[in-house]
Every structure is written in structure tokens, then in C-alpha cells.
Design brief:
The complex is a heterodimer of chains A (603) and B (519). Chain A is α+β, with helices and mostly antiparallel strands and 603 residues long. In chain A, the strands form seven sheets. In chain A, strands 1, 2, 3, 28, 29, 30, 31, 32, 33 and 34 form a ten-stranded antiparallel beta sheet that branches. In chain A, strands 4, 5, 25, 26 and 27 form a five-stranded antiparallel beta sheet that branches. In chain A, strands 8-9-20-21-22 form a five-stranded mixed beta sheet, with no helix packed on it. In chain A, a hairpin with a 5-residue loop joins strand 13 and strand 14. In chain A, helix 1 (4-17) packs across helix 2. By secondary structure, chain B is mainly alpha-helical. Chain B folds into two domains: 20-172, no CATH class; 216-517, no CATH class. Chain B has helices at residues 2-13, 44-56, 71-80, 96-101, 113-117, 120-134, 143-162, 190-196, 204-216, 218-236, 243-270, 278-299, 304-322, 342-375, 384-414, 423-443, 449-474, 488-507, 512-517, and strands at residues 34-37, 40-43, 60-63, 67-70, 91-92, 110-111, 168-170, 183-184. In chain B, strands 1-2 form a two-stranded antiparallel ribbon. A two-stranded antiparallel sheet of chain B has the order 3-4. Chain B has a two-stranded antiparallel sheet with strand order 5-6. In chain B, helix 2 crosses helix 9 (204-216), helix 16 (423-443) runs antiparallel to helix 17 (449-474) and helix 17 (449-474) packs antiparallel against helix 18. Chain B is globular. The N and C termini of chain B lie far apart (88 Å). The chains are: A alpha+beta (603), B mainly alpha (519).
Chain lengths: 603, 519
Amino acid sequence: MLSKEARKRLSEERCAGSLLWRSIYALGSLDLAILLLLSLAGVCAIATFLESGFSARVARAYVYHAPWFNVWLLLLGLNLTCSAATRWPWEKKHAGFVITHAGIIVLLAGALLGRARGFEGSVDLLKGAPPSGEVLLDRPRLTVESPATGQLFSTPFDPEVRPPRPDRPRLLPLPGSDVRLLIDGFTRRSHEKAVLTADPSAGQPGLTLELTGPFGPEPILASLTLGSFPRLDLGPMAVLEFRDSLTKEPETRPTFRETQMVLAQDPSHPILHNTAGLSSGYRFFVGSREDRAPMEFEILRPDGSGEVYRLKEVLGKTLVDPDGTKILAARYWANLVLRDGQPASEGDHPENPAVLVMLEGSVADPAAPARLVLAQGVTPGTVLYRGESGGENPVTGEIRVGEKFSPGWRGWSARLLAWEPSARIEMVTEPLPVSDPRPGRPAIHARLRHPSGQEGGARWIASGTSSILQTEGAASRIGFGLELQPLPFTVRLDSFEVPRDPGTEEPSNFLASVTFAEEKKNLEVPAKLQMNQPATFPPGLWPQITGLSYKFSQAGWDPQNLNRTTLQVLHDPGWMLKWAGSLLVVAGIFSMFYLRDPKSADA
Amino acid sequence: MRRLLFLFCLLAVGAPVRADVTLADNDSSYDSLPIQHRGRVKPFFGFTQEMAASLTGRTTVSVPEHGRLSSRQFILSLWQHPEGWEEEPVILIDNAALRKEIGLEGKERFHSFTRLSTLSRLNQLAADADAARASGTATPVPPLASAAQTVRMRLAIFSSLLSGDAFRMIPPPVGSRPGAAWAPAAFQSAESLRNLQSRGEFSSTKLQAESLYFNFHPFRWAWVAWLLSAVCLLLAGHAASGFGRRLGWLLALAGFLLLVGGFSLRVWLAGRPPVTNMYESILWVAFGTSLFALFFSVRHRSQAYLLAASPVVILALIASDLQPAVLDPAMNPLVPVLRSNFWLTVHVLTVTLSYGAFALATALGHFLVIGAIRKNAPLPNDDPGVMHLYRALQIGILLLATGVILGGVWANYSWGRFWDWDPKETWSLVALLSYLVLLHGRLAGWFTGYGLAVGSIAGFLTILMAWYGVNFVLGKGLHSYGFGSGGQSYVAAFALAEVVFILFALLRRPRAVSARAST
């Protein structure tokens, strides 16, 4: 065991004799270590505010995944290695120190390996759809076609990191040509909008409506044509339709049969059975105004209207309401008792009067979307409409271009903006206004620029789509979207279930069955996965240990479509190093703090 | 029917004359009846506490002309005599900016259901928040809109109480699908409800234990015990061994046992480890601090640990006791990603335990700094106080490093990736790095015991950021199920006071330190 003085002498000898040792001592110095730790802490702290203020992508691009940050980490690794080297020859008291530092180095190496050779992405699976063999990575790319050769070129392009703006455009060269691509706009949410264009050859009438909703002052424009574009869903809650005529479709409302046992003494709790599972909303009351007065039977409809009848007059007769609901007061018991589980009357004195009412009819489906149906009017240029929402009475009327009307939806107003006797619809990508709550896809605003300064028409290109841009003498197809990573196998969704918490709609788990298939090896492996219990492929210990396997974990679901699930896919060849490094770090710190002779505190 | 008719009248008349409300009896026989609420069957008393806390921010409710009502009497009154309650100012709007924005003048924090329902601006703000949330994570929800959403949620709760819809106390018939919804019950005697419930599937032992848990307040008694312990220890002074010291130690132990008992009960009742919200994490930190303080005080025969720990434990427990609107004590089911997960539990408990150790360290740091300044004497590395501090830091660093790495293990296991620079991860790393700087700086001779003490105070600010700040200030990232709002001003004031204290400590540091460091 070397004494403190001996070590000091040894280090002086080394430094005097060799430049290498001198640099090792410099790089492994404690002061440098503290500076590195301190700067790393500061930079990470700033990065979290970057993430909070902008987005995780920005923080990643400028800090965590930036080259200089990697250099910083490498420098830290070098510092750890060198400081361990300066303690050579190691003694027992150095064990904790060396293990900890080795652990961090192994951990960093694992991280670098994972970054270089691994990936993380997601795959969207739909039950019944063909198997998927590609993973969507969270790395936006731009694909451009060379105007000269037609060859495709792809380059990473993340508009979220430094969003292109009209005053801050980005210019990209198109390979094999002196035309350049100019991108001067970015939106996080865009949608495809139908734009009405007059076209004498189309032969179908079209119209454009302006709808102002409760979401904000910005109106929604909706274009429809009779024939090829007759229907538009405004989210799940409202539908626009353009039809030949306003005549109602055959009744599609759910029908029901309902029985109500109405008790005079507890009218607010009738015993109710309904085949449709939802109540008709009808209420009944039975009773007499005073002792010995005749029994009366009152009907209260869901819309608040109602009548009072003498029970004797209506008992056993079917009453039909204007909307077709049949009401039958089927039986009456003056003093209801239960005998062998069956209702019976004990005497004729009205001690506990009860009436059994049977109802048959159709109810307005509360989940049915609000609807606005439009049709060509008799006079050319006029449009007939009928608006209905929930169970409320429909509104109808006739309008001309420029006129305002109420579609009968709460909080909405509408205006006929345009009418074309012959038109077609063009789909155009556009940013969504902030007030519009619908989800949308990111999009970039791009055009081509000729060296002469002439510019072609600009377009919004949504993520996952491509568009042909033109300028004088040149055209190029430009695609924008997330990078796709091919997998050496395919995956298919066989079933997907979402169990719920008792009495609520909150999901309690997500259960998916998938099948992995590798055609070359003629291999099919079924697997199950659920929240926090991922599935891996290829199966077996060896691919997992080496990190050559792919891990599929539950990541997202679609409440509207329970046949669909999103899985996160991870391929990380460095994971073993990360785990081993972690273990070493913890063991090292522990032995440093608690297994060492406290007298030799300063290593 | 009466309820219905009454609502009709209300709609017809528009602005009814303010009618006085009728109070129900404060009848404890309802306490242990089961009620289905938020996906769980719980005792009625717990339900009333939760409802009162969500509506008014307190578990006792002040009603004009009726004084303070217990949560039980308040909720029973709403159920039995709903007439007139929508005119009573019992719904909390604590955000002054929001009150101003929606047109409520004055400093009154409580308003009536009718008043609030008529404010169109409130609805609009809440709708804005819906739109912002629906449009994806990229658009942050403005704080006012978020606060408006909270108020709208209170209105919805209130209306479900008035309409009776919240009282889901009739179990579905035997043979229904598991997890079917219970039906609302009309107000009736506890006895007849009990008859209706005789066939439901629930554990009455658990229900009784849960109502005991809500009635007994184990955590309240725990801070009382710690307070008494601190008084005893202070009175006992430096007496080497005396009755006072022993009593102080025993009281602290009693407080600790109450904490453990209450915690175990909670874990058993909720059927899950306490790892999900700020309330549970504060309790766990208090547990950690008292555990380490008791352990070290025995191991190293020093009362300093207990004295240092008591303000931390008392403050933490009082905060969790008095702020149910911010620190929600309800035992709600977890989101699926947090369920049945061993690594999750272990990493959260480990990290939070380290917060407990660092809280102990920062308290010791304060005592050391104040002592050194008062005596104007430097703190050498071998000062017993510095040794105490060093031990607390050691255990904290070991636990934090382990916890951060276990978090990576969990992420690797549950999400796939090991490390993702998520704000919570990153801030835990920042905190860990800061404490490593502290240890290495002392090793390098940059400072001695005094610097270590000041540094441990500064280091706790990074812990505060990782613990509270990420969830309540940054509000982004994967740990989103822990996000909340409220208490910002208190935490900010605390952090500011600490920064001032650190600056003061640096300015007034005992001068001899530099002379001492060179030896």
C-alpha cells in the first residue's frame, strides 16, 4: 500500500518523464471533473426550460442530441478514465471509486451504441389490416425529386426546431438542377379542405356554406357537391349532407319497448324496463285528487307537454302520440302487493295504487350527430335546408347565396356563400385556425424558385403526403413526412381489448394480441402484450441479451376506434451496457460510502 | 319528484328569491355505507370528505348563517334538502386573476352555483382549455383556462350532488357484468340503504377501515407527536441523558409509527403503493426524513438529527393536512401505465426517499450555517455537525443515483427506452450532479464544512425543482399523470427565501474559513 507521500512522488515522477502522463493528469483532474459536472447540470437545467417553452424536439436538437453535447459527454468519459488511471496502481480502498467510474463509462458507451445503432419508433396497427413491416420514426424528412433525372433524394428536415417563416425561409437545392426549394411556413395542425371550383364539365351542382360555431369567431367553410362529395363530417357531433331532396330517409331511429310500473306513492321511482337500454323519457303519474275521487292518469312527455285522463277511460286503450309512440295503460292495481313474486291487488281500496304502462316507439338517439341536410330548390339558385340536432324539432327553410340562416344547432349560425350549378371539389391542404379544435397534421408551405428569381405557385404539404410543385420549366414532387424504418419481419394485430374501471369509462388496461411473421424463415410467432408488459421479437434469451431483438410496447389508443392501437417499437443494441453500467455505479457508490474504512476518506 | 319539480320552478322563475337552506342531521350512521365513486367503492364518509375538498378546498364547509359544517353534514344536506343550495356561496375560486377575468368583483373566494353558472366568460375559458387540450400537446393550456376548467369541474360535481346523481349507492343486481355502474339512490335512512346494499360485492372490513382512516387522521397525530418531541428536545437542551431527551425521542418514534401505520392502511385500502400524486409523495418524504433522523440519532447518538428533521416533518405533514385542493388525499384508481408495476414502485419510492434524506440534510445545513454565523467560527470537515450532514448527503446520493437508474430500468421495461431526457429524468440528474459537485468540491478543497452546509441548502432547491417544479411549473413530459396546479406561490416564496438565505450565508461566512482551508 502506497502512502500519500509516495503517491505524490509517483505522480511527480510520471509527469516529469512523459507528456502522456502529464495530459492524463490534466484531463483526469478533480477540478475539471467538477467543472464538467457543474456545466452539465446547468445545461440540462436550461434544456428543460427550452423543452417547456418550445418543445421536446427543440431541446433535443439544440442540447441533448446536439454534437457538442456528445463531445461534452465524451470529455466526461475521458475525465473519468484518466482520473481512474491516475490512481494506478489501484488498491483495495480504490475499489468503490474505480467501480463507480467504470460504471459511468460503460453506461455512456451503452448510450452511444444505442444512439448509433438503435432506433425508436411507433407502428399503428388495425385489426384485420395487412401486417405491417415498417416503423414510423419520430424524425421528419423531406423527399425531393430531381427535376432533371427524376431520382429521389431524402434529407432530414425538422421544421419544428426552427420553424420556417416568411421572414425566415429555408432554401434547399434540388439535386441536378439550379432550381431551389423554398420553404417559408410551418403549421402544427393542417387539414385537407374541399374547395368549390366552377367546372362546366362536372355536371353536378355544388355549394359552399359558412358555419360559425361556439368555438370562436372564425367560421368554418364547408363545400359539397351533389354526387361526388355529398357529405361532410364536422367532427363526430355534426354532419352536413347534400341530397336530391329533403324527403326524410326511412326511419332509422332506434325503436324500443318499455314497461313502467307506476306507483302512486313513489311516482319518481317507477319500475322501468326498456329493451333499448335507454329510457323513453316519458313519465306517468297516477292518483286521485281527493279521497274517493276517481283515479286519474297523467302523461308527461319528454318535451314537457302532457295531459291528464281519467284512468277508467284510458285503461286498456292504446294512445298514439304525434311522433308515433304508443302508450297503453295495461293494468291497474288498487292496492299493489307482491304475492309469490307476482303483482296482485289486495282489496279494491286504493291503498297503494299502481298502473302498468306499456310504451312502444322510437326515441331520438342522444348520440346521433346534429344534421344539416341541403337540397336544390325549385327556383334555380335557391337551396332548401333542414337542420336537426338531438331530439329538438327540425328547422327548415329556403335560402339564396349570401343569406344567413340557423341550422338548428345550438350556438351555430350558417350562411350560403356560393352556389354553382356545375362544379367540382378540389382538395387543398390548409392550416387550421387556432380556434378550430379539430386535430390536424403538421404541414410545410413550399414553392420552387428559379435562379431568375421567378417563383412557382406555393402549396401547403401535409406530413405524410407529397405534392408536385412547378416553376418555369421545372417541376418536382416534394414529399414531407416521418422517416420509415423497415423491419426484418412483419407484425399484425389479431385482437385488441380495453377493459374499464368499475362504473366508469376510464380504461384500466390495454390488451393486444399480435402475430410476428418472418417470411424468409417461414416463421409465425403469436404474442400478447399489455400495458407495461411488452412483447419482443425475435423471441429467446440470446437476441434479448445482445439487444438484437425488437421490443413492442403499448403506447396509444383511439377511443373512437377500438380496433386500432399504436405500439412503440424499440431496438437498442446498447441496453446491456446501460444496465451493467448502472449496476456498477450503484454498487460503486455503495462501497465507496459504506464499505470503506472511514479513516482513509480521501482517495 | 320534489327535486324535479323544484328544478322546474327554478328554471321558470329565473332568479329566485334567496331561500334559506335546510340542514340535514350530522348523522354518522351513513359513514361506513359503500358508495361507488370514481371507479372505486368507498365509504360514504370518505366520499363526503373528497367532495367537500374538491368543492371548497377544505374538508369543513363554511355556510353563511350556519357556520362551519362537517363534510358529512354538508353533503347529507345537499342530498336530503337540495333546495336553495345553488344560492349558497360554497364553491371555491381561489385564483384571483380568474375571478377578475370572469367578472367577479372583490376578494370573495366563494361563490354560488347559480352565480357561477351564469358567467359566460367562465364557460368560454373552459372551452378554450378543452380546445387547447384537444389540439394536442404542442399548444400549452393557458393557466387561466386551466383554472376555469377546475371551476367548471366543481360546478359539475355540485350539480351531480344536487341532482342526486352522485350518490351511486345501489349495487347492480347479482350476476351483472363485473364493474357495472351502481345506481343513484334517493335520500333515505341509513338503515334502508344498508338493506338495499346487502347484495353488493364489496368488502365491509375495508370500508370500515377506510372510514376509520378518514376519521382518525393518523398523519395529523403524527405531526402533533413530532411537534411535542421537538419541544421536549429543546427543553431538555444539552443534558447528556435525561428524561426530556428520552421522551422527545419516544414521541418522535410515536410520530414515525403513526406515519407508518397510516401509510400501511392507505396502501392496503387503495390496493396499490403510494406513488402517484404530490400528496402521497409528501407523506413519503416525511416518512423518509423521520426514518433517517431516527436511525442516525440512534446510530450516532445525536439529537441534532431529530431536531433538524422536526421542522421538515411537521411542515410537510401540515401542508398535506391543510391543502386538500392542491394535495389531493383521494385514493383514485391509477392510469393503466402506472398499474401493477414493480419497477415503477421501486424507482419512485427510492427517489422520493432520497428527497427525504436531502430534506434532512438541508435542515441540518440551516442549523450549521446559523450556528457558524452566530459563533463566527469556521466549520472544519471533522466538525460533528458536518459529519452528520455528510452522512445524510451520502444516503441521499446513494438513493438518488439508485432511483434515477431504477427509473431508467423502469422506462426500459415499460416504454422501451432507458433514458429519454424527460424533464423529470433530467432534473433528477441535475440534482444528482449538483450533489456530486458538492462532494467533489469538498474533496478538491474548494470549500470545507461551511460550504458543504450552504451547498446542501442550494442542492435542495434542485430537488424542489425535480420534485415539484417539473410537475407544477414546467408541466411537460412523460410524468404527466403527476401534473397538478396550486401552491406555486408558497413554493416560490420558499425557494426565494432559501436563495436569500444562501446569499446571506455566503456574505456572512466566517472569515477564518479561508485560513483554515489552506492548512
